[in-house]
Amino acid sequence: MAFMVKHMVGGQLKNLTGGLTEEKPEAEKTEAAAQGMTQEEFEQYQQQLEEEKQEREASFAQKKAERATVRSHFREKYRLPKNETDETQIQQAGEDVVLPTELAKMIAEDNQEETHKQSVLGQLSNIQNVDIDQLKDKAQATLEDLKKQTENCSLM
Fold first, then answer.
1. What mean pLDDT value characterizes the chain?
2. Which of left, alpha, beta for 95 (phi over 0: left; psi -120 to 50: alpha)?
3. Quick one: the chain helix, strand, coil %, rounded to 5?
4. What pLDDT shows up at residue 46?
5. Residue 77: which of 126, 118, 114 has the closest Cα?
6. Residue 154 DSSP one-character state
């Protein structure tokens, strides 16, 4: 309320006096004085802000590179076309991009599952109603029978 009164009456008083009162121009105030600091404190504060900004940007770039690495891994795994933005993000990180241990563990598990699925036994386990142990026993028995027959064979 007081602000409104001062604003309304103050403006009219300035017009009546013709601007005889001296006011300090606000442009002369430095940013440091405006914030209640000395110039040296203000420079240290600005430097600290700049360092924090650089740390955040570096951390963000590292995270982007990690994500790009994961995406490129899955693109290779599923034979999808490569993305140039991912490659540039990895290159911009500069240093070796290290995946978090949890992600690396997940990728290793995926690779193990893929190798198991690609094996013959892995393919057989995908077929329903197939007993792997029974198949192994039959295969062993067949091999033993073949060995016995070859031992008894007169041509060999």
1. 77
2. beta
3. 75, 0, 25
4. 93
5. 114
6. S
Task: Report the sign of the C-alpha dihedral through residues 86, 98, 61, 91, in that order.
Answer: negative
pLDDT tens digit sequence for 39-63 = 888 899 999 999 999 999 989 988 8
DSSP string computed for 41-68: HHHHHHHHHHHHHHHHHHHHHHHHHHHH
pLDDT-derived band of residue 66, with 50, 70 and 90 as boundaries? confident
15 Cβ contact list (under 8 Å, min separation 6): none
pTM: 0.47
CA-closest candidate to residue 132, choices 116, 150, 148 = 116
SS3 for 75-115 is HHHCCCCCCHHHHHHHHHHCCCCCCCHHHHHHHHHHHHHHH
